[in-house]
Amino acid sequence: MNQKVGEPRVQDSICHFMAYAHTSVNEMSARYYQNERRYNYTTPKSFLEQISLYKILLKKKNKEMSKRMAHLVNGIQKLKTTASQVEDLKSKLACQEAELQLRNQDAEALITKIGLQTERVSQERAAADAEEQKVAAIQTKVSLKQRECEDDLVKAEPALVAATAALDTLNKVNLTELKAFPNPPIAVTNVTAAVMVLLAYKGKVPKDRSWKAAKVFMGKVDDFLQALISYDKEHIPENCLKVVKEHYLKDPEFNPNLVRTKSFAAAGLCAWVINIVKFFEVYCDVEPKRHALAQANAELAAATEKLEAIRKKLVDLDTNLCRLTTSFEKAIAEKVRCQEDVDRTNKTIELANRLVKGLQAEKIRWSQSIKHFEAQKKTLCGDVLLTAAFVSYVGSFTKQYREELVEHMWIPFLKSQKVPIPITEGLDLIAMLTDDATIAAWNNEGLPGDRMSTENATILTNCERWPLMIDPQQQGIKWIKNKYGTDLKVIRLGQKGFLKTIERALAYGDTILIENLHETVDPVLNHLLGRNTIKKGKYIKIEDKECEFNKNFRLILHTKLANPHYQPELQAQTTLINFTVTKDGLEDQLLAEVVSVERPDLEKLKSVLTKQQNDFKIELKHLEDDLLLRLSAAEGSFLGDMELVEKLESTKSTAAEIEHKVAEAKENEVKINEAREHYRPAALRASVLYFVVNDLGKINPIYQFSLKAFNTVFHKAVERAEASEDLQGRITNLIEVITYSAFLYTSRGLFERDKLTFLAQTTFQILLRSKEIELVELDFLLRFTVEHTHKSPVDFLTPQSWSAIKAIALMDEFQGLDRDIEGSAKRWKKWVDSECPEKEKFPQEWKNKNSFQKLIILRALRPDRMTYAVRNFVEDKLDSKYVEGTRMDLTKSYEESSPATPVFFILSPGVDPLKDMETLGKKLGFTLESGKFHNISLGQGQETVAEEILEKAATYGHWVILQNIHLVAKWLGTLEKLLEQHSKGSHPDFRVFMSAEPAPTPEEHIIPQGILENSIKITNEPPTGVLANLHAALYNFDQDTLELSSKESEFKSILFSLCYFHTCVAGRLKFGPQGWNRRYPFNTGDLTICVNVLYNYLEAHTKVPWEDLRYLFGEIMYGGHITDDRDRKLCHMYLEEFMSPAMLDGELALAPDFLSPPNLDYAGYHKYIDEMLPAESPVLYGLHPNAEIEFLTVTSENLFKTLLEMQPRNLLVGEESGQSAEEKVKNIVDDILEKLPEEFNMTEITQKAAVRSPYVLICFQECERMNLLIRAIHKSLKQLDLGLKGELTFSPDMEAQQSALLYNIVPDAWTKLAYASTYGLAQWINDLLLRCRELDTWTQDLVLPAVMWLSGFFNPQSFLTAIMQCTARKNDWPLDKMCLTVEVTKKFREDYGHPPREGAYICGLFMEGARWDIQSGVIAEARLMDLTPAMPVIFVRAIPMERQDTKNIYECPVYKTKNRGPTYVWTFNLKSKEKSAKWVLAGVALLLAV
Question: Which of 953-962, 1027-1036, 1358-1367 has the lowest mean pLDDT?
Answer without folding.
Answer: 1027-1036
